[in-house]
Amino acid sequence: MPADMLASGIVAGRLEPQDYDSNFADFHAPLSAHEALVASDRCYFCHDAPCITACPTDIDIPLFIRQIATGTEEAAAKTILEQNILGGMCARVCPTETLCEQACVREAAEGKPVLIGQLQRFATDTVMDKGVHPFTRAASTGKRIAVVGAGPAGLACAHRLAMHGHDVVVLDARARSGGLNEYGIAAYKSTEDFAAREVDWLLQIGGIEIKHGITLGADVTLTALQSEYDAVFLGMGLGGVNGLGIAGDDKDGIADAVEFISDLRQANDLSTLPIGRDVVVIGGGMTAIDAAVQAKLLGALNVTLVYRRSRARMNASVYEQDLAASKGVRIITNASPIAVHGNGAVREIEFEYTSDDLKPTGQTVRLAADQVFSAIGQTLEGDGLPDLEGRKIKVSASGATSVKGIWAGGDCATGGDDLTVTAVAEGRDAAMDIHANLMGGAG
């Protein structure tokens, strides 16, 4: 352990060994076959189901629930996976409480929706556990497509292209596939190496090769990919991280929440991860919530999440906010960081309270902190990219960029809302547009 970490109170092994297993166990136990039948029986099987409209991937939810109710789980899984090939992960991490379940007629009538997310997990897990891949690859078209990024958008795009008979090479900067599903989601949401197992299952379609350790710009240029492949899909996400940009933010103990979550997800022994006694997380999205909750689960005594806007403006859902609070995370809103205090290492972080329109009020507060995680957004990295809109690649509704033959989707592109399920939809739709263009079905 580095001396500066020990001096600042950031240490590993704060808990008893057995506590790590219990703290990071699956937060939502999967439904048994009987529980799935009971849950599916609550669905009204609406003809004009609002839950379908609320699903970014347009899964026919009443149909797959009816298939579960009739004991045909594999058919249910195929209904899901036809629209969302990463339906297993989305069932674990998708904010169903603000999407399909919020739109459920049962929710409106009784305040208790059908358990759509858990039923989706039941169906997709059933198929994956059997090792069944419900899709077959079409005859080879002889076309080759490069996909940059092995995250949700890239994998969904690659799978759909492979189904249509194209050969796909996926290039990813990381050592493992999955993108945020592998590196950026709280460990208790995706247990037992599920992200990697889902990728292995997805690759059973054939026709997809994944090359790791290749970064766009540093190792290969977009121009080179254009010359070698018939089409290119960009789904590399957002590699850069916004800094705090305040006095003292270079002190020991200031860290990036994305990196913290990544280190936790890749750790073989959680007891080796150093965590502070007084942890402050800055941000209001899912990354901030995941970092705060996991800091508490690792043994931090006090964890405070601070967001510059009101609770209503937080990107994290109310469910996730309540989850954080239930784990002992204190949430402070309408406060922006202005300075980090300490002699070499952080000891306190100072905030100024703001109005709803982010105007400073002049009132400040200092929070004790020996570890601070910043989760204030990520940025797009890369040179020679297609036209941008704001800080992301500008795309059409089908994912086409300003450069002919190049498509993009997921967090690196405009139009999405930084959700796994949205990235899957964008990758899938771009693949369909690529296929149509390559086969002469579109201009």
Give a written overview of the molecule.
The protein folds into 3 domains: 6-25 and 241-377, FAD/NAD(P)-binding domain (3-Layer(bba) Sandwich), CATH 3.50.50; 41-129, Fumarate Reductase Iron-sulfur Protein, Chain B, domain 2 (Orthogonal Bundle); 144-239 and 380-438, FAD/NAD(P)-binding domain. It is 36% helix and 17% strand. It has 18 helices and 17 strands. It has helices at residues 3-8, 17-23, 33-40, 50-54, 61-69, 73-83, 87-93, 100-103, 105-110, 116-129, 152-163, 180-183, 194-202, 222-228, 257-266, 286-297, 318-326, 420-438; strands spanning 144-148, 167-172, 208-212, 231-234, 240-241, 254-256, 278-282, 302-306, 329-332, 335-341, 348-354, 360-368, 371-374, 378-379, 388-389, 392-393, 406-408. Helix 16 links the parallel strand 7 (278-282) and strand 8. The relative contact order is 0.14. Mean pLDDT is 95; it is low at 1-7.
